């Protein structure tokens, strides 16, 4: 009998570990599926007062499109606001500052309760960087994005295509899975993408990370049916 | 009112812009005899090239009956140059394209075929199909200029961010307006 018990004990130890792993894996999978499913539908039953908003800026045309979108959003609803651009990109934050200053002029500075913040993030890959070194820089960018996301914990994320939005959106998605913060992620594909999505867009679409995915050309909507066609922003 | 040069002739400027890119193939193409002759033939008097980070230096010319050519590398604002131009020849960046279209200037977009991920041609080709601009390659630029009918261009309707704002508001439960 003793021999039998001992034998069983040695068998059940790895069995327990395996069972635990299977259960953990199942729970995480179910949670991820739930988060993706829950993300695609409205979150609030009664209209919220205001939502903290993270705006991810990219160079050139991306920023111009984002500024166009921001100019029609009700700023008192999307507040406080945080802008993030790549470390190497000073132009975009400058444009955001100009926009924010024009808002202060309109509403009067005393109405701004929490000041708008401007931040910069390491880029996962500079143009022309080798793929070998970009493994390291991607990890660095991911760590930096997670750190920034811990600090910001936005309720709304607006992004439109620069590569910098990937580590930030992935971090935000992980926070949703873990239950730290639920962010609604809105992605607007750039107007420059007529027939194919950008790599950032494709990743967010395929992985189901974005809550709402918008495209500016009808051809793209046909190809990616979960996307919403919104016409040209520019 | 049309601008005039020193001698009182109407000034019709072609403004070439490569933005912040390096696009020697375009600068070289507008500097060719065929393109300059074609522009002259179509009544343009001045050619102004914003050459960006490129290394090819076009030949300056004061004109004297033929096309006057001048160039510079960068300017903090190209808006003034776009405004005073009669024709714009641009790289395919969306910033330059929409800035020019908003001003209602005739536009030829030249696609840079040397770019690795050449998604930029998508936008230029789509807008050309919708007759808002002409789309060319560096080596076909002179044919495009020779064959273009400026009357056939359709003004670009300004974009509207309200539909996407409406969807975002609806999703978040904010009142839509």
Number of strands of chain B: 6
Q: Detail the poorly predicted runs of chain B.
A: none
Helix share, percent of chain B: 25-40%
Strand order of the largest sheet of chain A: 3-2-1-4-5-6-7
- Under the CATH scheme, which class of chain B? Alpha Beta
CATH homologous superfamily annotation of the largest domain in chain A = Glycogen Phosphorylase B
Shape of chain B: elongated
Keywords (chain A): Endoplasmic reticulum, Membrane, Transferase, Transmembrane, Transmembrane helix
Protein name (chain A): UDP-N-acetylglucosamine transferase subunit ALG14
Family (chain A): Belongs to the ALG14 family.
Membrane topology (chain A): Single-pass membrane protein
What does this entry look like structurally?
In chain A, 50% of the residues lie in helices and 13% in strands. In chain A, strand 2 (81-86), helix 3 (91-107) and strand 3 (117-121) form a beta-alpha-beta unit. Chain A has helices spanning 2-39, 61-72, 91-107, 131-152, 165-178, 199-207, 218-223; strands spanning 53-56, 81-86, 117-121, 156-159, 184-188, 212-215, 228-229. A 7-stranded parallel sheet of chain A has the order 3-2-1-4-5-6-7, with helices on both faces. In chain B, helix 5 links the parallel strand 5 (107-110) and strand 6. In chain B, helix 2 runs parallel beside helix 6 (141-147). The longest helix of chain B has 11 residues, at 162-172. The termini of chain B are far apart. The model of chain B has no long low-confidence stretch (mean pLDDT 92). Chain A binds chain B through residues 42-48, 51, 60-61, 64, 68-69, 71-74, 77, 156, 158, 184, 186, 188, 190-196, 198, 211-212, 214, 217, 228, 230-234, and chain B through 19-20, 93-95, 98, 119-120, 122-123, 125-126, 159-165, 167-175.
Short description:
The complex is a heterodimer of chains A (234) and B (177). Chain A is an alpha/beta fold. Chain A has 2 domains: 1-39; 50-229, Glycogen Phosphorylase B (Rossmann fold).
